[in-house]
Sequence to fold (198 residues):
Amino acid sequence: VEALVIAGHFGFAAAVKSREREAPLWGLMLACVWLDIVFVPLLAAHVETMVQVPGTKEGAYGGAVIYADYTHSLVGAIALSLVLGLAFGLAYRRRIGIAIGLVAFSHWVLDLPLHRADMPLLPGNAGDHARLGFGLWRWPAVSMALEAALVLLGAWLYGRAALQVAGTDAASQKRARLCAVGIAVSGAIVLGLNAAGM
Ligand SMILES: [Zn+2]
Fold:
């Protein structure tokens, strides 16, 4: 199984939920990995590809150069984010559509420091411009620590906002804490699976 690095993205979605309370959490969670969701069928169809970096274990965390030349090109990411944002804007409200679109695009921004200089500007790497990505994945311990920090921050912000909404109702407070812990634990599981190279 190819490791999709998603824990940090989920952390970000949880953080946004703490600010945009009307946006459905499932929609934010979908948005934060939207580019990777579209990536999966394109990978299966060999339109986008992954190449294991020599010297890294097969499927190791961050151990691949990812030629996601459509979904993770700057222009492609903007287009896909617009599509998802528009869909949510029509189904819900304009403001929610904007939040969803921005979260979808945040995926590209958060991937930028991690990816190994494999993200093109234009779909299909048209024009053969320099590829982007600062390659933090060369230091898995550092990138995992950053992801873990983002998960914890997201869970904490989410929990804090949920507690505010819960007010003085004990049952709601308990649910808010459980949700925050659930976010942190799911993030830890995803990171753990990545560390194990699954
Ligand atoms: Zn990605």
